[in-house]
Design goal:
The protein is mainly α. It contains 13 helices and no strands. The two termini are 33 Å apart.
Length: 240
């Protein structure tokens, strides 16, 4: 089930809240079918190559076979077998989270959230601008991008227009346009959206597989001591 898969991935990539993680782990202890699904997902996720996945599955099967023999000979409680299997699974998943280099896309998705519309479109006199905000709010980023671009072409050079143009371009995977827009925000005299633009510029580099540029941009976010600095430090440590 797609929702279940997303839930499991959110756990692996630490996107769940503290309470959500506790609920997830409680379910692992009580729901055998769910535990099996999580184990298979951990082993077969794209982060492992095919040979690694096969080796892990084979090792897990051998351990389970040995546990069955030992349990039948020693009279151990069946829960002991489950506990050992669960401990092995947790070792595998911990190794998976911390020791595998995540792909650019996985790191991007783990840290990216679209910036909300905090502007007030009602005060805009430009009809194109008002339409752009409505389109942005509706998630129609292609049309919103065109409207923001039209406003800029007509001389609307304010920082908000450039910033949200960049956000739309990033949503549309137009990396060069997003980079240009965020850099314009950073250089404009009005400091509004400067820190946000630096953060989104680093994410844009990452998604565009420019890891070196992403790390350089993240350094500036860290040095800014903004609300993004902690996340920037975490992300930078995961980029090899």
């Amino acid at each position: 089930m797609e929702i279940e898969t997303d839930y499991i991935e959110d756990y692996f990539y630490q996107r769940l809240s503290k309470d959500e993680r506790r609920t997830f782990e409680d379910r692992l202890k009580s729901d055998a079918a769910f535990t099996q699904e999580v184990k298979v997902h951990a082993l077969l996720t794209n982060t492992f190559d095919e040979l690694q996945a096969i080796e892990l599955i084979q090792n897990f099967s051998k351990i389970e076979t040995n546990l069955e023999v030992e349990t039948s000979n020693s009279g151990f409680h069946p829960m002991l077998k489950w506990a050992a299997a669960f401990a092995l699974f947790m070792m595998i998943s911990t190794w998976f989270i911390w020791n595998n280099q995540q792909t650019n896309e996985e790191l991007f998705l783990a840290y990216y959230t679209i910036y909300p519309n905090v502007e007030a479109p009602a005060v805009r006199s430009d009809a194109n601008q008002q339409g752009a905000w409505r389109l942005f709010n509706n998630g129609e980023y292609e049309d919103a991008h065109q409207q923001f671009q039209h406003s800029i072409s007509n001389g609307q050079n304010d920082v908000a227009t450039w910033f949200y143009l960049g956000v739309c371009a990033l949503e549309l995977n137009r990396y060069n346009q997003a980079e240009e827009a965020f850099k314009n925000v950073i250089t404009l005299p009005n400091g509004k959206y400067n820190k946000q633009a630096q953060w989104y510029l680093s994410l844009n580099f990452l998604k565009n597989s420019k890891r070196k540029e992403a790390k350089e941009a993240l350094k500036k976010v860290i040095e800014s001591n903004s609300s993004y600095s902690k996340k920037a430090r975490e992300l930078a440590s995961k980029i090899q």
